[in-house]
Design brief:
The structure holds two protein chains of two kinds. In chain A, 35% of the residues lie in helices and 23% in strands. Chain A is elongated and about 65 Å long. In chain B, 50% of the residues are buried. The chains are: A alpha/beta, B alpha/beta. The interface between A and B is medium-sized, with 29 and 37 residues.
Chain lengths: 211, 309
């Protein structure tokens, strides 16, 4: 899931200030689950921004152009009037809504990561979408995402009692976790294997997927 | 398993002759001057075979370490170990700096990760880490031993540099650290310098573990110039803690109000702690030497080493 966090009230106020007529779009998928852009949060935002809001809508998946067409069609006339659309979804949703409507779009949320959900309100960064997954080599634990240095041949010298120098030793050193997992699986040969430098061009050149 | 690369530097030549070596440490800071570094280099020259020049330690933005690495060799005649962190350079910048170092006559590079930028004095800076330290050693191997960069592009002129890596015997758990060192030794490491050590038993245990790699190891020590430094070190240096008794002895010295007397007391505490440490390492282990990180505390070298070398 794409994990998001609502921007501060001040930031939203500052962003929306120049616009007299606002339309608000919520997200029926990830932001609903994160409780950052679901029906309830959209209603609260409508209330907060008061009479400048001329309409609102839930889009089941704001990141999908087809769903935008389907869910925003009934609001076409109101959208035409709007000076800007405040989108309560991840960055991908904001851009897709902008592309579909051709309007000025404002992000109500900050997109944090592709995450694992333990429960609502406990989300963990798990994937950087690096374009070349190596989880088969690292005991199913991603060092690209979870090691602050994205080391492929860790750990580094900043590991103390299994904790990481980044974040004041509160977080686990992911390379120690990988070591322990591979040891448990009797696959320590994967730990000692030297992983050569990544071909970063793969990620840079992967900006679209068309088939 | 040790590198079969030729000994290009005096440091590695001495190690391979079987001599117990000492290296020192120089730290350029956030300044446009090098007088302090040159004075330190002059002060330590009689006691050490080479001196490391730190590269933005603790992610503090200091003077580019290549310049003092070169100037110290030229002006003082003391060989340097050019420390390079991968935090601040992608593979292009690494290649550029290695070529420049080679041209300037640098004979040793210490290939390290570097503390993360969030620990430093520009916390909002992007950490690069295009390569990790093992991959950096691999890049050095390609450039030095095969005359190419990582993409196979030919390098003209030849790079004649010996490669050092860092090790952290304080790591807990230790096994992943040891396996990691093994990886780098296999790729091409000429010497290892350890993180600061205070615990002799832990050091000896580590050295024993490392014998399987047959790679020369210099044990790092950090003489403590004042209680303030000891306390800072204990609190802020990743992976290092100062033993309580030593910290307490340092605290007692601090109570002496006369500056000169205080200095003598601090020196005595350090000599009392580190002289037996060095002696023990020298007599009972296969360590290649000691890396003395006495930054701006060069006066301790002579009395500290008098009895031990």
């Amino acid at each position: 899931m794409i994990i998001t966090k609502q921007k501060s009230e001040e930031k939203i106020k500052e962003m929306t200030e120049p616009f007299k007529k606002l339309f608000i779009v919520g997200c029926g998928t990830c932001s609903t689950s994160c409780q950052t852009g679901g029906e309830k949060e959209v209603a609260e935002m409508v209330e907060k921004l008061g009479n400048r809001v001329i309409g609102s809508a839930m889009v089941e998946e704001p990141c999908d152009l087809r769903i935008n067409r389907r869910d925003l069609k009934p609001h076409r006339e109101t959208l035409k009037e709007a000076d800007a659309i405040l989108v309560m979804s991840c960055g991908s949703g904001v851009q897709t809504v902008g592309e579909y409507t051709g309007k000025i779009v404002l992000p109500a949320l900050d997109t944090l990561f592709i995450g694992e959900t333990e429960r609502i309100g406990k989300f963990y960064d798990r994937c950087k979408a690096c374009a070349e997954c190596i989880l088969d080599e690292t005991g199913g634990i991603c060092p690209i995402t979870r090691c602050p240095k994205s080391l492929l041949n860790g750990p580094c010298g900043g590991q103390v009692e299994g904790k990481c120098e980044v974040g004041e030793y509160k977080n686990d050193c992911i390379w120690v976790l990988i070591y322990e997992k591979l040891k448990e699986q009797d696959r320590l040969d994967l730990f000692t294997t030297f992983r050569p430098p990544r071909d970063n061009s793969k990620k840079v050149l992967t900006t679209e997927l068309i088939f | 398993m040790a590198s079969n690369r030729p000994a290009y530097s005096d440091l590695v030549k001495e190690i391979r002759k079987g001599h117990f070596v000492l290296t020192g440490e120089l730290e350029p800071e956030k300044t446009t001057g090098l007088e302090e570094v040159l004075n330190s280099a002059r002060a330590m020259k009689p006691y050490v075979i080479a001196a490391n020049v730190t590269d933005n330690p603790l992610a503090m933005a200091y003077m580019n370490s290549l310049v003092p690495s070169y100037i110290v060799q030229r002006e003082v005649g003391l060989e340097t170990v050019y420390q390079m962190v991968i935090r601040d350079r992608n593979r292009l910048a690494l290649v550029s700096d290695i070529l420049a170092a080679s041209y300037l006559g640098i004979k040793n590079i210490l290939a390290i990760s570097g503390d993360h930028t969030v620990l430093g004095d520009n916390k909002g800076a992007l950490s690069v880490y295009d390569l990790d330290s093992a991959q950096f050693v691999y890049l050095l191997h390609k450039m030095i031993d095969e005359g190419v960069d990582l993409a196979g592009n030919e390098i003209h002129g030849g790079v004649k540099i010996n490669v050092g890596i860092a090790a952290n015997p304080n790591a807990d758990p230790l096994e992943p650290e040891i396996l990691k060192i093994g990886r780098k030794v296999k790729i091409g490491t000429d010497f290892i310098q350890t993180q600061t050590m205070f615990d002799i038993d832990l050091t000896k245990e580590f050295l024993k573990e490392m014998e399987r790699f047959s790679c020369p190891i210099l044990v790092g020590i950090f003489p403590l110039k004042s209680f303030g430094i000891a306390d800072f070190f204990d609190k802020f240096i990743p992976g290092v803690s100062v033993p309580k008794e030593l910290l307490e002895s340092m605290r007692k010295c601090k109570e002496e109000s006369d500056k000169e007397k205080r200095k003598i007391l601090y020196d005595e505490v350090n000599i009392e702690y580190f002289s037996p440490f060095i002696k023990e390492i020298r007599k009972t282990t296969k360590a290649a030497g000691i890396h003395v990180m006495a930054v701006l505390y060069e006066r301790i070298l002579e009395p500290l080493l008098r009895e031990t070398v």
